[in-house]
Structures are given as C-alpha cells and as structure tokens.
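Aim 2 progress update. The chain analyzed this quarter is reproduced below.
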Amino acid sequence: MKRLHPMMLAGTGSDVGKSVLAAAFCRIFRQDGYWPAPFKAQNMALNSYATPEGLEIGRAQAMQAEAAGVPCHTDMNPLLLKPQSDHTSQVVLNGRPIGNRNAYEYFRREGREELRGQVCDAFDRLAGRYNPIVMEGAGSISELNLRDTDLVNMPMARHAGADVFLVADIDRGGVFASAYGSIALQGPDDRRRIRGIIVNKFRGDMRLFDDGRRMLEDICQVPVVGVVPYFRDIHIEEEDSVQLSMKSAKIEQGSVNVAVVLLRHLSNFTDFDALERDPRVHLFYTSNPDDLLRSDIIVLPGSKSTIDDLYGLRRNGVAQAIVRAHRQGATVLGICGGYQMLGREVCDPHHLEGETERMPGLGLLPVTTVITETKTTRQVHFSLCEGVGDGKPGEPTMTGYEIHQGETRPCDDAEERPLVAFEDGQRDGYRLDDRCMGTYVHGILDNPDFIDLLLRPFADRLEGGAEPMDYRAFKETQYDLLADHVRRHVDMELIYKILQGND
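Predicted structure tokens:
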C-alpha cells in the first residue's frame, strides 16, 4: 500500500467537528485497505481513557483508534490537560501525570521546547507504525497570541510534513470570514500547507451552496474538498459535555428513567452512552432535586474534583434529594468519584484537590475514601462477584477501565461486600443491595450483564418490552455510517491525490 502524507484536520475554531471528521477518515482509510491511526499532540478534556498498557489518553483519540480498528496508545495523544478549575489543569505526559499547572504558567515559553520534543517524538514513533496518520488540531489555527507556544496546530503539521485540511462550521455562521481569515493570518509557508477546505455541518439543500463553494475557493485560493451535511441519525461519542443538560428530563412512562447527576467537574460522561441507547431506558442529566426525586435510577458519575463537587451537591440540595430518593425506592449507583461521594467521607490529607482535608459523603455506602498521590490507570476484565445478580466464579466476561486517585475501603464496622471481581483476583466496589452500589470501573455500563443487574428491580415493568442492545456492534455500525456519510460528501479522489503528492 502506497505511503500517504499525514493528514491534519485543523479548525477555524473550537467545536467545528474536527474530532468526528478525524474518526470518519480513520474508518475510511481502514475500509480502503490502509493502516491508519489518529494523533492529537495536545488535548484538553476531562473525558479520558486507559490504554492496554494502563496509561491515560484523551477519550476522543481512543474513539478514533476504535474507528481505525487499532489499539489506542499514548503516542496518539502524548499530552493531555485535565482541567481542575478555571485556571489550573493536571498535565498528563505520555500517559502519566506530571503535576498541576495554571494556565499562565503552562503557556509561558519556559519548558515548551521540551514538551514540543516529547510530542514530536510520539508522532515519529506512531508514523513508523501506521499509514496514514490522521492528525487533529485544537481550537483555531489562527490564535496569534499563542503561535510561539503552539504544540498542536501548524507547528506540528510542519514537523509531520502533513497536508492540512481546514474545517469550517457553516452552522454557526460566518463561514467565509472564518475560513478566509484563518488562511490569511498564516505565514507564507503555513498558508501553502493548507491544501483543502471542508465545510462542515451544512443544513438544507446542498445546491444552494454551489455558488458559495466557488466563491470560497476564489477568495481563499484553496479547493473546497467537501461540504458535509449536519447529521442527527449517526451516533458518535461526543468529546465535550456542553450539550448534556439539553437532554430531556421529562419522565417517560413505560421506560426506566435514569438521572445522571450533572456535576460541575463531571468526567467520562461517555460511561452512559450505551445505557442511553438502551431502548428500555430514558436517560437524562440534571442537577435539579425535583428531577432526581421522580427518577427510578440515579447515577453519580466521575468527577475530576470530588470534594468540590461533593460540597456543591450539599450546598444546592442535590445530596439530600439523592438520599431521600433512595429511601423512597430509587436505585443509586456511583461510578469512580461518584462512588467516593456515596460513602461516609472523602479525605484529602495531601491537599491534592485543595485545602479541604475532609468532606462528609452521602453516607449511603459504609465506605471511606482517601485521595492518594498515586493515580490508578488500567484496563480491566471482570465478572460480578458471587452472590451479586448471576455472578459466580469463572472466566471474566466484562470489560472496563480505571482512572482514579483514591482508595476506598469498608469502614471498620462494615463487612466487605465487593461488587465485581477482576481477573487478577482483586475485588472492586461495594454493593449494599440491588438498589445501592458503587464501583471505580468506568465503562461498566457498556456490559449488557451489568445493565441487566441494574434494571432487575424494574423487571415487572419491562416484561414483554424491548430487548437489550449489543453496544459494541452498535458502535461499529455507527463508524461505518459516519464513513459512508463523509465519503458521499467529500472528494476522496482529490484527497488521495493530495496525500500522495500528485495534486
């Protein structure tokens, strides 16, 4: 198979669709017989994932690797920033945390060249194993004040020798100005590196943009290689949580109504994608106590700042509503930080999250948590513990991953009641009964057997209803649908010519 240039999808701004388009091209190249892999030098996100080696990367690059059909690796996202407040982030380099930085400190020039060397080395290793590399930029490529310290956009494209395709979001308006300005603000060498424009999220009759396409090519002197319509019927994991609160909290009769608590520092919200697609379930996100009191199941999700979010739940009445809803018969499940919150207390003796050393939990589980300096990141295979649902000794059939800083143990007056058993013999989580449990395992809800356990108390309501879905098969179908959608609306023949150096 002929070697292709790396392809970079750069943006006129944030949220223009770069991540999803990168996943689409990863799947297209795989379908066409290549061996592609995604790459984003620096990502800022609370949504992360554990690689097979037990290291941490952005969830978006793990999703893109899944679309490409290859195992995810830290070389696909060597630098990950996980916001902890409005001004500080945990810096994860090559899968391991190296400390916290405030924004001013991080974006100063000191130390940037060392980071630049690290991300370039990661790209070089990846490019030696895969063909082509589908690169993703970050935000806008025309942030002039950050140009000297930029690690992820045009400087990375120069190092990689990548052909850059500018993604412009026509749905938000201003597509001509944003595309032209993004190109015009580049230096001569970088301007020549931009080989095509992709107009994304188009709504309406495509023929109405025929003149616009020609005008855009004329003013930018760059071909428009595609106009991709907005879609609603293809379901790809979202990178950002900004739209979660828009999902309807209206209670649906005949479904199991699941409320995910909308935390300020919510992380790994993709934990709930499979459950949201389950036809037996109506899932929504809320921080409204009244919504929680009407729900059948309440899920406390992961958090990047457990103590701060726990304080917020107590202050806004959500903690009290969760306890009251449980007393009235609702099921409560905590995942990772949410599991920690369900216990009697969360302690931070090393001040890793702030000045607060101890915060009382909701007290629904007889466990206590100490936040530790060591971070646990690993993929896990597990089964339900004996006595939990249909759990019995045997080969682990379920999968997930752990990303947490903390150890949670039963209190001195409580018996051990673990929820799941790992293949290495370790136990995780705590199950009080079928209506109250917690675990550190992200992705636990991707497993049909665990969803069945969660829904078991509502079996009488679901008799004769919809059947559970195979979420892994569903995702594979969605990647294929995405690839077909993008392939229909971009000029793949021209893109291949550009990537082969034959345009």
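The domain at 7-41+110-236+477-499 is CATH 3.40.50.300 (Rossmann fold). The mean pLDDT is 91. These observations will guide the mutagenesis experiments scheduled for the next reporting period.
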